């Protein structure tokens, strides 16, 4: 609604649970103004109740579409360089107005909560624009790491939607073993918790099947934007998952020591064979 009445060259999106700091805006504007290929920029986000700790320095995206806060829980003075990121954080970011209009804005037909910022970022990247993390812009965010039953539904359905919209069918076929492992990980989380998670995981599958024609319509629209290859899109993904959200500490340690190296090897092999 704000975008519909805005008249400037840049749009700024802020969560209602954020507090900006003096001078937060100028570095974001400067980064967008300096390079027309930069489409979206995101600031350094700190924890509201722990200002010495990071919330996010942009988002990192796992090769299976799982989105994580980049730098979460690390000391606030880390990540001091301006860098390309896989996606901006929807809690605070700026975008060129012309890029937002060209991309058609947020996908509010098929998204409601979660990953809509990554979807916008990936569409921009597919169209040839970059997403940058700007460390000199500081914003506080009242963020809690949690994964309730309803979030399971929206998060998982949107993750599948993200992959289906942006990647070639051949890429999805090559990703299948990694995607199956991601499903095993998410089902492990479900079985360690309670029945609402189980039901909402199945709801996510059902939504994709029920909305298949709409998803394919969006896929055709997004693929028409393509100026880069899947290989370029996936080069900035990460093979590492934090696993803290899955369950007990021993599961997190097991995942980091066994599964992350496997994902790293698989990602390297995938990028080596992708030619599209």
Structural class, from secondary structure content?
Answer: alpha+beta
Strand content: 15-25%
Amino-to-carboxy terminus distance = 37 Å
Q: Can you give the helix content as a percent range? A: 40-55%
Largest sheet: 7 strands, mixed
Number of helices: 10
Unreliable residue runs: none
Query: What is the H/E order?
Result: HEEHEEEEEEHHEHHHHHH
Morphology:
globular
Nearest-angstrom radius of gyration? 18 Å
Number of strands: 9
Mean pLDDT: 92
Word description of this protein:
The chain has 276 residues and is α+β, with helices and mostly antiparallel strands. The chain is 48% helix and 17% strand. The protein has 10 helices and 9 strands. It has helices at residues 2-5, 25-34, 97-103, 116-126, 149-166, 169-191, 195-210, 212-223, 230-235, 249-273, and strands spanning 10-14, 18-20, 38-47, 54-56, 59-61, 67-69, 83-84, 92-96, 130-141. A hairpin with a 5-residue loop joins β5 and β6 (67-69). The longest helix has 25 residues, at 249-273. The radius of gyration is 18 Å and the shape is globular. The relative contact order is 0.15. The model has no long low-confidence stretch (mean pLDDT 92).
Q: What is this structure, in a nutshell?
A:
The chain has 276 residues and is of the alpha+beta class. Helix content is 48%, strand content 17%.
Features:
9 strands; alpha+beta; seven-stranded mixed sheet; 48% helix
Write the layout of secondary structure elements.
Layout: H1 2-5, E1 10-14, E2 18-20, H2 25-34, E3 38-47, E4 54-56, E5 59-61, E6 67-69, E7 83-84, E8 92-96, H3 97-103, H4 116-126, E9 130-141, H5 149-166, H6 169-191, H7 195-210, H8 212-223, H9 230-235, H10 249-273
Parallel strand pairs: 3-9
Antiparallel strand pairs: 1-8, 2-9, 3-4, 3-8, 5-6, 7-9
Helix pairs in contact: 5-7, 5-8
């Amino acid at each position: 609604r704000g975008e519909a009445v805005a008249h400037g060259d840049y749009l700024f999106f802020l969560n209602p649970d954020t507090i900006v700091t003096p001078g937060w805006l100028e570095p974001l504007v400067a980064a967008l103004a300096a390079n027309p290929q930069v489409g979206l920029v995101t600031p350094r986000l700190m924890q509201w109740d722990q200002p010495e700790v990071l919330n996010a320095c942009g988002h990192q995206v796992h090769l299976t579409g799982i989105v994580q806060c980049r730098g979460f829980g690390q000391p606030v003075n880390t990540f001091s360089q301006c860098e390309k990121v896989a996606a901006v954080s929807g809690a605070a970011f700026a975008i060129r107005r012309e890029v937002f209009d060209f991309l058609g804005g947020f996908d509010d037909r098929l998204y409601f909560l979660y990953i809509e910022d990554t979807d916008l970022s990936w569409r921009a990247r597919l169209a040839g624009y970059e997403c940058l993390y700007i460390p000199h812009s500081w914003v506080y965010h009242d963020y809690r790491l949690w994964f309730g039953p309803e979030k399971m539904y929206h998060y998982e359905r949107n993750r599948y939607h993200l992959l289906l919209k942006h990647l070639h069918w051949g890429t999805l076929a090559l990703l299948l073993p990694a995607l199956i492992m991601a499903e095993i990980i998410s089902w492990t989380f479900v079985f360690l918790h309670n029945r609402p998670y189980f039901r909402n995981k199945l709801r996510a599958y059902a939504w994709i099947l029920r909305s298949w024609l709409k998803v394919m319509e969006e896929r055709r629209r997004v693929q028409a934007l393509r100026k880069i290859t899947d290989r370029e899109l996936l080069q900035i993904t990460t093979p590492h998952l934090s696993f803290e959200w899955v369950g007990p500490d021993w599961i997190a340690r097991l995942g980091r020591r066994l599964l992350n190296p496997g994902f790293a090897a698989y990602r390297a092999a995938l990028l080596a064979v992708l030619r599209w």
